[in-house]
Structure formats: structure tokens, C-alpha cells
Design brief:
homodimer; Isopropylmalate Dehydrogenase; two-stranded antiparallel sheet; globular; binds 3-isopropylmalic acid
Chain lengths: ~350, ~350
């Protein structure tokens, strides 16, 4: 099996951790029936520098022709003050839309050696295991009109969804819940928003096709509380774009570091974009000390969700877990054990694969 | 000085804790130069029962003629499944709009005896003191169109603000910061929303009038993380309606209970509506064991923000603090000391005034 992977290293530590990802994939191809070919393309700040746009057409084309896509990170102080349309994160928004990556999966997993680093008390954190399914190409992020009016005296953004858009993300939510503990929490603001009332209706409709899944509705404000007071009460969460943005970042503080969290953005084919949830960490870029774990776990998510290789994904996840359990970690992680640099940490994980 | 206070006890434990509020006000009038006259009106579920609407016109009129308004709580299972326009919380939304209560103040204060009850580790919680200023009558809550289209195949809500609406809440934000530690965090999603870009521009404009205040901008997703990882890094936060809804509820978990948190909703005159942030707790309604502290602290906020009696407000706040410090509390609070019922707890606070 030959798979074409587009690499979008991006900015800051992106290129360094992308090297770790490639080494892990090459290791996978030694024990599984797969070979990877790589094509590297620009996105974000580096694309602004090289092509005057955060998302060159050539990058979009390369991604469309790929089996899957890995992204490092985008952004940095160098591009903080340029016009909005060229800001590195416009590359992210653009590629989500161009490839129709409507389903964002954000697993929150807790690693034992890091529990004590959580701002939450350990008994609330230990054993938490949440999957947030966020709609990624609709809602306030892309609805129109989004404009100034009356000589700049009024401004509007539009929260817009079609029935189809809500339905398809709801199916991802239910399917994800089926693969987990069969409990789905649909988050909305149905006491205020018409879009949320439609969201809730469709959740009920779709739930008829997944009779085994227990569906509950939760208001977004209540969800923001409960994620912190009772993180273990959640299993799978499905929600719209902006609520998902806020809640998934909020939930990312549970495990005590964002350096071990990966994410997937999928379309309705098997194409997906996989990336760490952390940023480009410009302060440590080029020093060779960046934590490669989120990036390596992004490879695992790619194997599972895009390339139908769940066994290979598991090998990676288990190796990361073992490395942490044995105390190996990069300097950003507040835990006991041995501090390694990016290459050494990657070596360790590969050694355990 | 004679002040007309409208009491809106509402549903569940609302009436019980409102009695505590009245007793505290009567005590205030003994030591300060003020007399209170009370008028009780219906809102929420009880208004639906009595008048077939959660916000009768007579209630609006009474509130418009008042010097200030106290609200207990609205809602309960009895009214959970009626049509949207009659749901008790529509009473809340309606009165905010009818009285132009555009500025919602949500102080997050930590009481020592409750620190250990927080889901967060004590070192992060102790000493936290945050004021969230939430815009309350604009944005997605009231923007139009908000409707189904294309035979119900599309739905839109509208996030709308005028320059004036943003300006006036920004002034409240800066003025609040001036009365505190002179640091203001403006929360938006300027990397995605046009309304947030205007929000940020206006924040910068208005900041010129408050040179002593240090203004910082924070994206709402980052704010949702930082409220939990570094609550003490915040002083005053100003944000739009929906972000404020989510973040203020999230922040309310910091003190270890929502039973000690009050809120104010103000218009551009001195009229305000003051209420606990907790709900109507139907499960314990009528048992005489409800915690009156949030309601009593709502009276303190009223004295400070609506009736220009900051000294009287302080007397109440100090008495609540002393009662808790000495271990007196209702059964909902997870702390050492002596458990009292609603009337006894109110007695204790009055005794210390
Ligand atoms: C960079 C930004 C536009 C983006 C978003 O809001 O979606 C980011 O916060 C994310 O969650 O991937
Ligand atoms: C009841 C609901 C409409 C309301 C809101 O969202 O504003 C509540 O959550 C609040 O924060 O006061």
C-alpha cells in the first residue's frame, strides 16, 4: 500500500516536530504493509514570506491529491501585524474550507505521569477521557453577511447552518460515540439561538439511527462549567464551530499540558488534516528542544481516521504512553524522569514501537 | 432617602431567599439614612402560571418606576417543555431588553473557607478576584435576522453590534478597571469575526480616555484556558454577550461554589437588576434550607451600583465574609463549621452587620 502524505511544517517549531513525524511514519512502514511518499508544501507565515499568501493555490492542489495531510503549526510574531487576509491563521481557515474538512476531532486524554501538573485536582482528572467533535466549516466562521454597515456604525457576523451541515457532523458525533462508551453530549444554546434549536431537533432526529447511544443536551454555559467540575462525566461531545473552539481549548487544560494533544480535521472522504493543538512556540523554535508528542500522536490519528490502520495507530499511542510512563519527556513537561531533546524523545518513542 | 425596590422572587427557592434579602435591607435602613418600600411582581414560571407570559407588562411597568430591582431565580421542570416564547428564561431576556440593562457585572470572589472545595488546586484559586463585564443586550442574543429559511433547510442567527453599544460597555469596562487594579482584558475572536475586529478597534479608541488602565486583548479560546490555568492573572474582563455568558459561567467554578456569587445588570441610568447567579434549585425549594448568600450579596451590589451606598454594601459583604470565616454556612457548602438553615444563616449575617 503506497500513501501520499502532504507535509505542511509551517512556522516556528513546526519543521522540527514534522521531522519526528516522518521518522515515526518511516518506522511504521517497516512493520506494516505501507509505504509513504512525502510532498512538502508551505502554509502560514512561511507561505506569506515565500508566496505572499498564507495558503498558496499549489498547497491546496497538493493537499487535494494527497491521501492525507500533516500540519505542524502556523504563526509567529513576525506576521502578527500584517493585514487580516494574510495572517497565518487564514491559511488554516482557508484549507479547512478548500478541502471541506468539516469534522474536527479533539481527543482529551490524560497521561498518569502528568496528572499532578493539571490545574485541576487530581481526583477530577485521573481517568478523564473526552472526545470533542467540533463542526469546522460552518457557523459564525464562514456565514455571510460579515461586514460593517452604516458608514461603519454597525457590524454583523452571521451564524449560519444548513440542515445537511448539522446532520453530517451529528452523524460523526454518534459514530464516534458508538466507538467509545455510547454516550453523546450535544452542546448548544437552544434557550437563545434559533440555530441551536435546529441543532437540537436534528440531534434528536439523527439519534433515532443510533438507538444504542444515549443522547443528552447541554447548554454551552453549563458545559463550560461541567467540563471543569466533572470532566469524567463526559464521553463524546458534539457541538458547532465556535462553541467547539472555546470548549475544546478549555478542555485541553485538563491533562496538565497541551503538549500531548493532537487533532484531526476530516472531510466526507477519507482525507484529513492532522495537527498538534499547540502553536508554533516561536520562543523555542530552532533549539531542538520542542516536544514532538502532539505531532507524533497526530500521525497516530491519521493512521486511524484516514488510512484505516488502527493497529499502527495503537502501536504509536502505546509507545508514547510507555515513554512517558518510564519518565522520558521534553523540558516543557512538568514531570519526574529524564529530560530529552526533540530527537532523543523521538528516538525513545520509535524504540518502543 | 426613600427607595422603591421591586422584588421579583420568581420560582423555586427564589421566594425563600428573597425574604432574606428583605430582612437584610430592613436592617440596612436601621443604620443608614434610607427607607425601602417594596413592590412584588411576577416573572418566569410563576408569571406563566398567573399571567400566561413569563414577563407581564405590569412587571415591566413596576420595574421602570422603581429605583432598583431584585430578582430571585426563574425556571423549573414544570415549565421545561412549554413553547419557547413562554419559557421562564424569556422573562430574563425580555426584562434585560425592556429596561436596557446592557451591562452585566459578574464578580468572582474567593472566600477562604471554601477554597478547598474548588475543582482547581488551592494555590491557583486563593486570592483570585475577577470582575467580568458582559455586554447583555446585543450580539447573537438579539440580532436579526434569526430564522429558518429555504423550507427549514437553513438557519441563521445574527451577531450584531452598533459602535455605540460597544463603546458604552467598553466604558463600563474601563471604569470598572479604574476602581480595581487598573488592568482590563478585552476578550474577542478578532482572528475570525468582523464584529470582534470592530470590538478591538473600539477598545483601543476608548482606552485613550483611560490612560492609567493597562489594556490587553485576548482571544476567547485562549481566555477559556487561562481562566483555569491562571485565574489570578485576571482583574477586569470586558466581553460581548455570548462570550460573557460562557466565560462568566466557566469562571464561576473557581470559588468552589456558585452559592456565593451575585450579579448586576445595569442600564445607563442608575437602574439595575440584581440577582444570584445560581438557578431556582427546584429540588430543595420550600424546604427552608436554601443558601441566601448570593441573594444577600445581590443586595450589596444593588447598594453599591444602583443606590450609591458603597458603605452599606461593604457592611453586608463584611458580614457575609465573617459568617463564613466563623464557619456558619448552609448545607450546600462543602466546608467545616456549623450548618444553618436559610433563616438562621440570614440571622447570623444580620447579627454581624
Ligand atoms: C486560529 C483560529 C482561526 C483557529 C480557530 O478558531 O478555529 C484555532 O483557534 C483553532 O481552534 O484551530
Ligand atoms: C437563561 C439564559 C438566557 C441566560 C443567558 O444566556 O444570558 C443565562 O444563562 C445567564 O447567563 O443569565
Amino acid at each position: 500500500m503506497a500513501k501520499k502524505i502532504v507535509l505542511l511544517p509551517g512556522d516556528g517549531i513546526g519543521p522540527e516536530i514534522m521531522e519526528s513525524a516522518v521518522r515515526v511514519m518511516d518506522q511504521i512502514s517497516k512493520s506494516f504493509n505501507v509505504t509513504f511518499s512525502y510532498e512538502t508544501a508551505d502554509i502560514g507565515g512561511v507561505a506569506v514570506d515565500n508566496h505572499h499568501t498564507p495558503l498558496p493555490q499549489t498547497t491546496i492542489e497538493a493537499c487535494k491529491n494527497a491521501d492525507s495531510i500533516l500540519l505542524g503549526a502556523v504563526g509567529g510574531p513576525k506576521w502578527d501585524n500584517i493585514e487580516v487576509s494574510k495572517r497565518p491563521e487564514q491559511g488554516l481557515l482557508g484549507i479547512r474550507k478548500a478541502l471541506n474538512l468539516f469534522a474536527n476531532l479533539r481527543p482529551i486524554r490524560v497521561y498518569k505521569p502528568l496528572v499532578h501538573a493539571s490545574p485541576l485536582k487530581s481526583d477530577r482528572v485521573e481517568g478523564a477521557d473526552i472526545l470533542i467533535v467540533r463542526e469546522l466549516t460552518g457557523g459564525l466562521y464562514f456565514g455571510t453577511p460579515r461586514e460593517r454597515r452604516d458608514n461603519g456604525n454597525t457590524v454583523v457576523d452571521t451564524l449560519q447552518y444548513t440542515r445537511e451541515e448539522i446532520k453530517r457532523i451529528m452523524h460523526i458525533g454518534f459514530q464516534s460515540a458508538m466507538g467509545r462508551s455510547k454516550k453523546l453530549t450535544s452542546v448548544d444554546k437552544a434557550n437563545v439561538l434559533e440555530s441551536s434549536r435546529m441543532w437540537r431537533e436534528i440531534a434528536e432526529e439523527v439519534s433515532k439511527e443510533y438507538k444504542e447511544v444515549e443522547l443528552e443536551h447541554l447548554l454551552v454555559d453549563a458545559a463550560a462549567m461541567k467540563l471543569i467540575t466533572e470532566p469524567k462525566s463526559f464521553d463524546t461531545i458534539v457541538t458547532e464551530n465556535l462553541f467547539g473552539d472555546i470548549l475544546s481549548d478549555e478542555a485541553s487544560i485538563i491533562p496538565g499540558t497541551i503538549g500531548v494533544l493532537a487533532s484531526a480535521s476530516l472531510n466526507d472522504k477519507s482525507l484529513g488534516l492532522f495537527e498538534p493543538i499547540h502553536g508554533s512556540a516561536p520562543d523555542i523554535a530552532g533549539k531542538g528542544i520542542a516536544n514532538p508528542i502532539s505531532m507524533i500522536l497526530s500521525v497516530a490519528m491519521m493512521l486511524q481516521h484516514s488510512l484505516s490502520m488502527p493497529k499502527a495507530a495503537e502501536v504509536i499511542e502505546k509507545s508514547v504512553e510507555r515513554a512517558l510512563d518510564e519518565g522520558y519527556h521534553t523540558g516543557d513537561l512538568d514531570m519526574d524522569g529524564k529530560v530529552l531533546n526533540t530527537v532523543e524523545m523521538t528516538d525513545k518513542i520509535i524504540e518502543f514501537m
